[in-house]
Description:
By secondary structure, this protein is mainly alpha-helical. It has one domain (12-231). The protein has helices at 12-31, 57-74, 76-102, 112-119, 123-151, 156-187, 195-215, 217-231, and strands at 35-44, 48-54. Helix 1 (12-31) crosses helix 3, helix 2 packs parallel to helix 5 (123-151) and helix 2 packs across helix 6. The longest helix has 32 residues, at 156-187. The model is unreliable at 1-5 (pLDDT under 50).
Amino acid sequence: MTDGQTRVGPTIAQVALIGLFVTALVTAQLTASKVLAFELPFAVPISGSQLALPGAALAYALTFLASDCYTELYGRRAAQIVVNVGFVLNFLVLALVWSTIAAPAADSSVDPDAFATALGASTNVVVGSLLAYIVSQNWDVIVFHRIRVYTGTEMLWLRNILSTASSQAIDTVIFVGVAFAVAPAVFGVGVVLPTDVILSLIVGQYLLKLGIAVLDTPIVYAIVSLVRSREGLAAEDVHPV
Length: 241
């Protein structure tokens, strides 16, 4: 904060960024069951000319944008609190969805089986997504902060791209590997996919996520600049831990 200013309670920007993070996180949880397929005008290694990825990819990418902005503005410790509270809230979302699926349906209700199919993520997908989330999101915050320690207030684009690109790689490998290889083989939930299909899913998801990481950099700059100007924050006004 600038001299003479005292911050009391969370600011509008903090609430908005946390709201964006949680909204994107919940949306990702509810849209993960739909698999998207995009045709490319060219072929890429392993994946070919089609990118296959879960419907949650875009929503989940927004969580990294929100957490990077939050880390830049309010520091590592504050951002990790948001990330880890979000992890706990994942279980609340799952409990609410599964309890609604288990409850008896009225005659006027939408088809219960269709509802369960659309919103009830399978166990292997849940295990994969939760593990990928807790590891990749904390990695994102830590890497972003460490780069900031070395670069100071400059090169926001570098810490945004490197932290998001590396954390998205971790997220993709863990999610696909656990959901479609480890969980089905070890716990007997879900179906073990062929290795070439797993590699194709990893490549397809990561290419999209990497593109988003690059394209969202101007948005991160705009949000950080707007918040600093409205709240009277200098670039140095961030917690050192």
